[in-house]
Amino acid sequence: MTDEPAPADAGGALLVPAAGAAARPDPRALPAAPVTRFAPAPTGHLHLGHLVNALYVWGIAGARGGHVVLRIEDHDRQRSRAEHEAALLDDLGRLGLAPDEPPIAAFRAGTTAYRQSDCGAVYAAALERLRAAGLVYACACTRTTFAEWEAASGRPWAGMGCPGGCRDLALDEARAWSASPAAPGLGLRVALGAGSERWLDLLAGPLSDEPAAAGDPLVRDRVGNWTYAFCVVVDDMRHGIDLVIRGRDLLEATPVQLRLARLLGRTAPPLFLHHPLVRRVSGQKLSKAERDTAVREMLDAGATPAQLFGRAARLAGLRQDESPIAAGELASLFGVGS
Ligand code: GLU
């Protein structure tokens, strides 16, 4: 499920179009009036990879009369920064990308139901349902546990599960609930159970996989952060997301998220679209630390939003050239006959 990097760009650019994967969904397969989301983590500035994601999210919503939810995924309290959130809201405004929900001003005004750090009580209530069903257990594994397992087995630990067998240890859950960065305690995991999940990816087709193969996910970590794996599931449910559009690096996370959603009572899973990733010529994924792909620096240097969308469309493999595309025209990439 990895994208092979294409040969180096003729122009010597740092980035290469994603290769080896379909980029454009069949317009007839796109659902009518989807509710989708743009869900960045404020751990750095928006880069070209986010721009590719935004192009799919706003483009498909625009082509199908859909609705875009903006969610700030700042569940990781140590890595998230208020100044990065302010910068990404600002960058979206400069790009001409407005969510349907909530208004950008709602983030600036204070508490919203769309910023994860404001929603701890929501995640606690969701986890309580799973705890009452006997599915939650405390986990004492640390980096050392993983390193010891790897040293003993001679291979890297794969998946997101627990190498320490904590499920059978009945550790004290109170030590997880009181955990904080100043006083690390235990993590909490959800027992997923056996069986497979099936889902439809609008680019990869029908898929199925066993969530247990990845191991029981950590839902709250040793310093008291709710984890991505849990927040994203709870939030996609409460925000009514029925089309998840994101990069292919999250394709393998999908079966675990589907199982968590099912355990939380979601009856109809969302549709998914995992789009190609933009990579460096070296094959590496983009990172937020790399200033040369930061949207704001390119705008500051004089690039127009339309030029950046044109570039993103080519990098995603949606277009052969970089001709500019205005924010209001992104739907043209995903319509019938495009
Ligand atoms: N917050 C994630 C990111 O910035 C997106 C997660 C998702 O779309 O499920 O990569």
Quickly describe the structure.
Helix content is 30%, strand content 13%. It is an alpha/beta fold. A hairpin with a 3-residue loop joins strand 6 and strand 7.
How would you describe this protein?
- The protein is of the alpha/beta class and 338 residues long.
- It has one domain (15-333): Rossmann fold (3-Layer(aba) Sandwich), CATH 3.40.50.
- It is built from 10 helices and 11 strands.
- The protein has helices at 48-63, 82-95, 104-109, 120-132, 143-153, 174-177, 228-238, 254-263, 295-300, 305-316, and strands spanning 15-16, 35-38, 67-70, 136-139, 187-190, 197-201, 205-209, 218-220, 243-247, 271-275, 279-280.
- It has a 3-stranded antiparallel beta sheet with strand order 4-5-8. A two-stranded antiparallel ribbon has the order 1-11.
- Helix 7 crosses helix 8 (254-263).
- The longest helix has 16 residues, at 48-63.
- The chain starts with 14 loop residues before the first strand and ends in a 22-residue tail after the last helix.
- Residues 1-13 have low confidence and may be disordered.
